[in-house]
Amino acid sequence: MSTLPLDARFKLSYPGFCLDVDLQLPCQGVTALFGHSGAGKTTLLRCIAGLETAATGHLRVNGQIWQDNNTFVPTHRRALGYVFQEASLLPHLSARENLAFAIKRATQPVTEADRMDTIDLLGIAPLLDRSPGQLSGGERQRVTIARALLSKPGLLLMDEPLASVDQPLKQEILPYLENLKTTLDIPIIYVSHSAEEVARLADTLVAMENGRIVASGPLNDTLTRLDFPIKLGEEVGSVIEATVTERDPQWQLAKATFDGGELWFRDSGYDVGSQVRVRVFARDISLSLQHHSDTSIVNSLPAVVEEISTEQHPGLALVKLRVGNTPLVARLTHRSAHHLELAPGKPIWAQIKSVAIIQ
Amino acid sequence: MSTLPLDARFKLSYPGFCLDVDLQLPCQGVTALFGHSGAGKTTLLRCIAGLETAATGHLRVNGQIWQDNNTFVPTHRRALGYVFQEASLLPHLSARENLAFAIKRATQPVTEADRMDTIDLLGIAPLLDRSPGQLSGGERQRVTIARALLSKPGLLLMDEPLASVDQPLKQEILPYLENLKTTLDIPIIYVSHSAEEVARLADTLVAMENGRIVASGPLNDTLTRLDFPIKLGEEVGSVIEATVTERDPQWQLAKATFDGGELWFRDSGYDVGSQVRVRVFARDISLSLQHHSDTSIVNSLPAVVEEISTEQHPGLALVKLRVGNTPLVARLTHRSAHHLELAPGKPIWAQIKSVAIIQ
Amino acid sequence: QEINAAVASNFLLPMRDIVTAFEQQSQHRVSIASGSSGKLYAQIIQGAPFDVFLSADQEKPSALLESGHGISGSRFTYAQGSLVVIATNGLTDDPKALLSRGEFSRLAIANPRLAPYGAAAVETLKALTLWHAVSQKLVIGESVGQAYHFVISGNAQLAFIARAQVQNSQGEHPYWPVPTKLHNPIYQDAVLLKKGSYQLAAKQLLAFLQSEQALSIMDDYGYQPAGQQ
Amino acid sequence: MGFSAADIEALWLTLRLAAIVTLLLLMIGIPTAWWLCRTRCRWKGLISAIIALPLVLPPTVLGFYLLLAMGPNGPVGQLTEALGIGLLPFTFGGLVLGSIIYSLPFVVQPIQNAMEAIGERPLEVAATLGANPRDTFFNVVLPLAKPGILTATILGFTHTLGEFGVVLMIGGNIPGATRVISVQIYDHVEAMDYAQAHWLAATMVLFSFVVLAILYSRKHLMIWK
Amino acid sequence: MGFSAADIEALWLTLRLAAIVTLLLLMIGIPTAWWLCRTRCRWKGLISAIIALPLVLPPTVLGFYLLLAMGPNGPVGQLTEALGIGLLPFTFGGLVLGSIIYSLPFVVQPIQNAMEAIGERPLEVAATLGANPRDTFFNVVLPLAKPGILTATILGFTHTLGEFGVVLMIGGNIPGATRVISVQIYDHVEAMDYAQAHWLAATMVLFSFVVLAILYSRKHLMIWK
Ligand SMILES: Nc1ncnc2c1ncn2[C@@H]1O[C@H](COP(=O)(O)OP(=O)(O)OP(=O)(O)O)[C@@H](O)[C@H]1O
Ligand SMILES: Nc1ncnc2c1ncn2[C@@H]1O[C@H](COP(=O)(O)OP(=O)(O)OP(=O)(O)O)[C@@H](O)[C@H]1O
Ligand code: MOO
Ligand SMILES: [Mg+2]
Ligand SMILES: [Mg+2]
């Protein structure tokens, strides 16, 4: 297909705020839009959706020009789904009717099975006959997500869709979105403050600050950059693409092999041979000089120190490691780094609790 | 003061949902209200605020009857602050005027210094002259929080106040709320899906399901209960109340001593002798048979295994430990538990990465 | 002294001139409230502060006497109206001919129930045995004023109106004075009202209505003195 | 006491007139209100003002000017004649037109307010779901503007029932074509036939009261549903 | 061409009347609308219907009944006499009362709609911030109902300027006290003094147009601020 399916350049000014972005995104997979409150994430999504008619610029999606100097495709002719940041059910329609509204206007026919699946997944079956005013915050949000999915968009814009959804439910919805990503083959732009969501879903990370894009790139490159412009705090880490190579049914564990070693993680039914994505938080890696086998830490990988930098807190160090060709980031105290005499080039064992692996 | 300052019993029915709670809360500190989407959290807050006039029941706050069979104190005479789940700025007023609205009607005078502090803390100074429609989602939420604080309430109800606030900002607002809790001496009821927020703020945890309270109690008791009715997932852990006993200026670390041992953590300027709360996630504890000194893990405490249970995922085990008199929970794979031959009564080393300690 | 005169709309214009003359002669001031007779009648019954009532008919003043709102003996016929048929601007033909040949699409009259001119118009049409021929083409105005509007706006080609209106009309409207024998005389009665506070001045005004000066003003406007047949 | 045949004819005519006028008022008023609500045109304020203007003239005077305009020498009259419709005064069609002009502000205003109260969000949502402007108008704007439309219907309908200044002027009081009930009651009053006036007025009031009470109860139901 | 002294007197009286009536309409209409908006009273629909009812009668006929009611034998008249106010017909006070009754529905309806559109949330927010109902009403409800109040003001004011059926009946066309401009224009038309009628009508229309255009532009400014 085309090499740059989403190509966006926008300029828009509000008093006191100015959006000025130039962005190229791959044609599929999830792009996480990251940035502080007021950075312009919502404004960018609105520009892409064609809701900010005052924005000048250029937008090409899947090879179609949606906006340039002469063209402005109106929102309703852009095949997109938009989950707004605030609840946005049509107030005169029940939950069911809101879904029907989307289905009727969907770009492709929606089968009854599709509909039931989406409803079940989001756990909204018992709520369908309620009007939006009779739903709780999280319930409203779930109906809105279902509605966006049922409109069968060619581009999905989601503005903090899971902010008001509780943890266990999030754990159910996230895999569905991951699945969607691979089955639907459409680009998804996903605004979130939650590094967990980002790590699980995103292939590409775009960081915004003050209306501008300050960094963008494939997830792991950006996450392991120690100078990443947006401070990720507790969420610094890295993502490893790996292949499932073994399953241990007795202990319900699975093994993934990647360029640099292997990792055990809890088995959620992955087929041997399938690709998985393993998220390793910097805070979950501890370093030791030797390999210890008497601990509960399952994964221990030989690594080489590449770079040491200081975290936001002066007592903490971020250490970039290389395991084979795979970069990893570990966080430890400067005292420990000193104590272990860490320096670039030093070989070391990276201990990773298997339970810290996400997918 | 009175022993049961917040005593609430409510019954309220909607079609398909029925609230039926009986709740006693301590007169100060933060109570976290936890529960799935649609569990009735918002409804309970609304009952307490007097916004659900159809609710029957009994409510006593700080020794005053707010509601019983004969009494119904109207909302405006209940000295409370309420941060609604949805943005709720008065749409005809600018951010500044919204704050002024609260200040003018506050139960106590608000000094200019108070006002400036709150505005600075929430980072809303540059937004004050905007109308609500001109603010981003997170900005609106911050103004709403500031407004609730400036009304100087005697009881603070917060419904997912930080859901749309980004991580770094959350890190700034949370300590302020913690501080508020000790200086203001008012009860705060805090609805949140984020275990991080709950762990940092809450003294008491109340879990709701289907309109009923299924568990409540002091934070640590509830968090370390392996049979806690609400599945906490990644967030299982425990909280240790400790005293700062030493500071290491060279490495910017501090040491806290508690009943069972000592913990090093990053120093954020705590005075020696002050009380701190240390949050330890189950996923951050690894167990080893011996004490290792060649790792980056700073804290290693001798512990005794108390109880082993299975987590949601069958491959994972939750192990309840006792360090002195303090309970801790560790999460590991069943394979590791088997490998380490864990059993109740077995002595073991609990390795805790200092960086995993929150406060 | 200042008095209020309730005057039927059709007599408003001559009354203004008469009042001007009256005020020059006496120290009194007169303000005129005009309206349809029916409206003025209802107002008088409800205590309107009018001193005299100049109706467009005889029926209402006598009803006021009966109900005790008028002062007995004060009623008299102050004028007799003349009926004309007027045609739209530009119709050169004689209105009578147009009427009898039926060469028009709309004929305007005042409401015969409310206005004596309307009743007279109906009587005239019946006398001319045109009633059946024209009744489908009739448009009815609340008053002769409205009938006149229908014509000057060009929407009706012919109208039965008061002679007074032709006198005052703008533009060249051919008209035909209807012979008085074709209908009952249009007597307009006046009465002195009990409610009036200045009966002396009011009486003087009523007397002045019968003066030569007043009669000549009425003549200018196409009214004949009462009794002149 | 009963109704004369003329009364019944007038009653029937009035209901027909009010129903047709109300329908046309909505058909004109709703798009106008929507246009006023959405346009960024600078003449917007002026156009709103023009729509409200007929209100400041006494109905009879307005009727007089309409009579001139719709007459053979007036611009409207020349237009309708050129179109082969003929002249409008003294016809049912003329009454309809006059009543529409006179009642339009009562219809446009409440609907426009209701539409403005909807805000941008539902329209944006509909657009992202693929609804084109027409679709959005019918399936989002109209349902959400319901309270305003109901108010407009009530005001337009009752105002048409009651108004007679305009109607009297351009109608010519022709039985069965333009003699509506309001003119009929007026005639009874002017003719001092008070008993008949009371009787007709009471009927009107009672009938309208029942209709209004039903409409209003439904409105409240609708809003608090 | 100029105005006669009578014209100017009438103009002045009209402005005074319209201003006073509009003010009183708002003072009555706003609380009524709020009550209708908040109450759960079952008579609500009926009361709304009663307020709208004067509309269904021809103004002159309504004026006739008001005249009866306010006259010496009518209930209102007996009340005002007992209160020592005297009788209202043919006084400025009577005109004010009549105009209020006739224009009330145009004022209550748009305000009520605007208030209903506010929804519960702002009221709840105000209550949690310690605002009592009165405070909330003045500082939250009124500002948020502004578009409706503006519409009500415009409709009430223009309708009072223009209406003359009621005014003519209960006012009695008395110069300086009850002869308003609408009656004056009507008189000019009836007296076939068309030039003067055109002149006065044009003045009215022009003046109103300017006022309305300003109000409407401000309204749009306000909403899109
Ligand atoms: N209509 C407007 N007028 C003026 N400023 C505006 C307007 N809309 C948005 N802004 C400003 O533009 C900036 C970007 O807003 P935006 O909603 O895109 O932020 P965001 O990144 O989505 O933030 P959040 O995470 O809080 O939702 C903010 O500072 C906001 O105040
Ligand atoms: N007016 C209403 N009519 C009917 N059901 C209602 C109404 N309001 C709330 N409910 C139902 O009551 C239940 C509890 O709602 P509530 O808003 O208290 O949930 P919550 O715990 O706050 O959820 P969330 O985390 O999603 O905000 C939900 O199932 C909701 O659908
Ligand atoms: O005000 Mo009118 O002229 O009676 O309809
Ligand atoms: Mg946003
Ligand atoms: Mg909630």
TrEMBL record, chains A, B:
Keywords: ATP-binding, Cell inner membrane, Cell membrane, Membrane, Molybdenum, Nucleotide-binding, Translocase, Transport. It comes from Porticoccus litoralis. Residues 1-235 form the ABC transporter domain. It comes from the Bacteria. Residues 294-359 form the Mop domain. One of its GO terms (molecular function) is molybdate ion transmembrane transporter activity. This is Molybdenum ABC transporter ATP-binding protein. GO terms for cellular component: membrane. The gene is modC. InterPro entries: AAA+_ATPase, ABC_transporter-like_ATP-bd, ABC_transporter-like_CS, Mo/tungstate-bd_C_term_dom, ModC_ABC_ATP-bd, Molybdenum_import_ModC, Mop_domain, P-loop_NTPase. SUPFAM superfamilies: MOP-like (SSF50331), P-loop containing nucleoside triphosphate hydrolases (SSF52540).
UniProtKB/TrEMBL annotation, chains D, E:
Keywords: Cell inner membrane, Cell membrane, Membrane, Molybdenum, Transmembrane, Transmembrane helix, Transport. Part of the binding-protein-dependent transport system for molybdenum; probably responsible for the translocation of the substrate across the membrane. Belongs to the binding-protein-dependent transport system permease family. CysTW subfamily. This is Molybdenum transport system permease. Residues 11-217 form the ABC transmembrane type-1 domain. It comes from Porticoccus litoralis. It is found in: Cell inner membrane; Cell membrane. PROSITE patterns: ABC_TM1. It is a multi-pass membrane protein. One of its GO terms (cellular component) is plasma membrane. One of its GO terms (molecular function) is molybdate ion transmembrane transporter activity. Gene3D superfamilies: MetI-like. The chain crosses the membrane at residues 12-37, 49-70, 82-108, 197-216. Its main location: membrane. Pfam families: BPD_transp_1. InterPro entries: MetI-like (IPR000515), MetI-like_sf (IPR035906), ModB_ABC (IPR011867).
